[in-house]
Amino acid sequence: MAMQRGGYGGASNSGYSNSGRSRGRPGSAKKVGLTEEEMEEVKEAFQLFDTENRGTIDIKELKAAFRALGFMVKKAEIREMMTNIDKETSAVVLYEEFVEMATPKVQARDTKEEIMKVFKLFDDDNSNQITFKNLQRVARELGENLTDDELHEMIEEADRDSKGFITQDEFFKVMKKRGENPLDDLSSDEDEF
Questions:
Q1: Could you read off the pLDDT of 48-64 as tens digits, one per residue?
Q2: Alpha-carbon distance 133 to 144, whole Å?
């Protein structure tokens, strides 16, 4: 766990406890849908701009705080985020509000990274595409008894440009449509009790 800086954290490593207000303290990472590591990353980005350790940052610093997280956001997007948390007229953003604004962006980034990891499992020849041969190998490794026709059908379903293989972009779009965690489908039913 990262060392606490400034006046943050007190006895807790999860956020601000010296504010005297419950609104200044973040909930658990599970509550907002981020891992402990992601929460730490968001907290550190916030702390860069909360120089007086008040648990707030100036609205003008939001763009830079998001840049510290690796996101390039436009003023219009910041205005929309502020509207979404009912803070259109406020000049400051509380830590928990920043977490609320940052969470969807961090989750989307991580989802793409996870999907690309799965893509690389299929793309064992590093061709940046999933071919029939790649799909056949993965099906065999997972113990799936799929016919060649079924495998071709799977490729055709994802192959938007009809080139006979699935690109990274096509794979990402299919996986995003399918749901939350692309790794869920890779685990065998036999692994569960």
A1: 999 889 999 998 889 89
A2: 14
Is it the case that residue 95 has pLDDT exceeding 80? yes
What are the residues facing 56 on neighbouring strands?
94
Written as six digits, the tokens of 157 are 């379903």
Supply 142's token pair. 């997972």
Q: CA distances (Å), 19 to each of 10, 52, 65, 177, 191, in order?
A: 10, 12, 20, 41, 46
Mean pLDDT of 101-108: 90
Fold of 34-108: Recoverin; domain 1 (1.10.238)
Single out the residue of 61, 30, 31 nearest to residue 46, CA to CA: 61
Any idea where the domains of the chain sit in the sequence?
A: 34-108, 123-179
Contact 14, 71 (CB under 8 A): no
> Inter-axis angle of helices 95-122 and 36-49, to 10 degrees?
130
Kindly report the average pLDDT of the chain as a whole number. Answer: 78
**Cβ–Cβ < 8 Å for 40, 2:** yes
Q: Residue 130 and residue 119: Cα distance in Å, rounded?
A: 8
DSSP string, 34-58: --HHHHHHHHHHHHHH-TT-SSEEE
